[in-house]
Specification:
By secondary structure, the protein is mainly α. Helices cover 86% and strands 0% of the residues. It has helices at residues 2-22, 26-42, 46-63, 66-82, 86-103, 106-122, 126-142, 146-162, 166-173. It is elongated, with a radius of gyration of 19 Å.
Length: 174
């Protein structure tokens, strides 16, 4: 049943893509290509997903759409992370962050900073995770979101705790 839902969604998005191509609606093409990439990603068809993400990137680059670029780069980073292609995941997360910072869009920037921090944490690269959580804390403080800064501090504390460094964990909780 789930496969037929994927096929239905894929068919609908491909029909929409054909329409947007006829109308020369570039922004909608980029969005639809990303959605098709998401569907392939969800169904574990990574090479297909990557191809559609790449097509979306090309259009977004031509449009100068940094927001769409940052979201698509992040999706590709997650795609490579799922495949344990860590160097490629990092490369695309870095590109996502670079584009997000150009947009000045705080939600996207914070989401990508958090994704990178979680990426390093999941790989047990704690030094790098700390650095990104610190950037995230500074970002949240700058954007007057103290509750989210506290959440990021708690993530740092959890890392210290998992390493058995309870003194530093307690400092982070405060």
């Amino acid at each position: 049943a789930k496969q037929s839902q994927f096929e239905e969604a894929l068919s609908s998005y491909k029909e929409a893509l054909a329409l947007f191509q006829k109308l020369n609606a570039k922004q909608e093409q980029a969005n639809t290509l990303s959605k098709i990439g998401d569907i392939y990603n969800s169904s574990l068809e990574y090479s297909q997903a990557f191809d559609y993400y790449q097509k979306s990137l090309q259009i977004s680059e031509n449009l100068g759409d940094e927001l769409k670029l940052s979201l698509t780069y992040a999706a590709i980073g997650l795609l490579f992370l799922k495949q344990q292609e860590l160097d490629l995941a990092k490369k695309y997360f870095d590109k996502a962050l670079e584009s997000a910072e150009k947009t000045g869009h705080p939600t996207v920037t914070s989401l990508i900073l958090e994704s990178i921090a979680l990426f390093y944490k999941s790989q047990q690269f704690y030094k790098e995770a700390f650095a990104y959580y610190q950037r995230l804390i500074a970002f949240y403080q700058q954007h007057k979101q103290p509750d989210k800064a506290i959440d990021a501090s708690l993530q740092i504390a959890k890392i210290y705790e998992s390493q058995g460094d309870f003194a530093k964990a307690q400092q982070s909780y405060q």
